[in-house]
Amino acid sequence: MRRSSVSLLALVAPALMLSACSAEKSEDAVAAASDPAAEAASGVSSSKAGPSIGGAVAPGVAFTYAYAFSLPAKAISSVQQEHAAACQKLGSARCRVTGINYDQPGEDQVSARTDFLLAPDIAHAFGTEGIKAVEQAEGKLENASVSGENAGNAIKLSQQDSAAVQAEIARIELRLKAPGLTRAERVELQQQIAGLQEQLRGQAVERRAKEASIATTPVSFTYASEGLIGGGNTFGRAAGASWSSAKTVLSFVTLIAGVALPWVLLIGLAVLAWRGLRRRPAAAASAAEPAAPQ
Q1: What CA–CA distance (Å, rounded) separates 206 from 158?
Q2: N- or C-end of the chain: fewer Cβ atoms within 10 A?
Q3: The CATH number of 62-149+216-224 is which of 3.30.750, 3.30.390, 3.30.70, 2.60.40?
Q4: Global pTM value
């Protein structure tokens, strides 16, 4: 019995090890298959919300977000107010409205713009929520862009320039302490110091502006309605292109007529005057001829 049990354990143990290894491999395969799916899902959501760049990816870069929406003309005003209200809910420390514009040249022609200043960590999320509000109003995102400025590097360069200017000021101040300077030389050196100090103040102002651009992120929403001619379908785009071409031709013809019409009138008057002058000698000659004897 001992030999049979030992031999049974010797056969069962490798089988258990093989099953455990196969189970681990299957779990790894499931995890590997789920990761691409999650990445694909995140890619789809990010494509709908526009590009997103965090501060961890590009530290010291001041970003600016811009979104362009198209939606029905009657919905633009309410969506614009909804975006402003969403900013207000975040609080003035996190979001501020810096500009609002609304223009309606025609009944179904509306263009508008809202500018925000947000904390960098919520700028992309705010844009995503803004897109959702537009889609709920039967609109869509036409364009989204992110532009950046390397403000951190500019600040470092400015600090280096300021250090060099301060060193120059210290050198000039040592020269002022030297004996034997004339009055004119002292005035010249003092003017140089004043100019360099003014340069330092200007550099400090620029650095504060760069620091503020890193600490806050401008976000702009532009809205445009789809008119009868400028609609999103192929026929509308073709009609819009035809109307634009017709307006261009009409403008060109009007320009040519405006330039040529005075010359045409002048030539016409000259021809009439010339004909009138030719008729006068002929009339005088016919009047001077004697009447024939009967």
Answers
A1: 8
A2: C
A3: 3.30.70
A4: 0.53
